Amino acid sequence: MDQSELLKRCQNGDELAWEVLVRQHQGRICSIAYGYVGEQDEAMDLAQDIFVRVFKSLHTCTDPEKFQSWLIRISRNACIDHLRRRKARPPLRDIPAEEMVALASGGPNPEDEWYRSSRRKLVHRALHRLSEINREIIVLKDIQGLPLEDISGMLDLPLGTVKSRSSRARIELAKAITEMDGGPHGGPLGAEAV
After folding, report:
1. Is 36 exposed, middle or buried (0-12, 13-18, 19+ CB in 10 A)?
2. Which residue positions in the chain have pLDDT lower than 50?
3. Where are the domains of the chain?
4. How is domain 3-88 classified at the CATH fold level?
5. What's the pTM value of the predicted model, to 2 decimals?
6. Cβ atoms < 10 Å from Cβ of 24
7. Which residue intervals of the chain are DSSP H helices?
8. What is the pLDDT of residues 6-20, one digit of tens each?
């Protein structure tokens, strides 16, 4: 079933179609939420809230071709709202960076999995050192793969600004990773982490 038909069936109240839509997009939504909050359990809870928002707003998505951008916009807005609420009510304890990424299972070699996991943790810690706008651009462009034009509209910034910010954000991220890793070859991950 194509996206247009799926969306139409969801808008008409088809519960099975809604389940299919959620399954198709839950990984992306969880990834977006994780990019903003940096904690897996919190990201999973936030993803559920995002899907509630999506369900309530399905009738506003009139162009199936732009569904993905529409979905990411709702996700982004929900994440920003969540972070604002969290700032107003800070957590009881700081969350250690080691808890930010759950180890993926199923890898044939535990050493390779540790290495990949360490790289992911390093990148996520480095992401949180970036300015808010640069982190958002990296998440939307490099992690979620959105076109610059969509990001420009989402962030209400001129396309040229998004292009230059994207380039600067990647440089800032690379510097943060290098500093956290102890230099080009100094840490456990070496230059390959970038």
Report:
1. buried
2. 100, 103-107, 185-194
3. 3-88, 98-193
4. Rna Polymerase Sigma Factor; Chain: A (1.10.1740)
5. 0.57
6. 11
7. 3-11, 15-37, 40-57, 67-88, 110-127, 132-137, 148-155, 159-181
8. 889 999 999 999 999
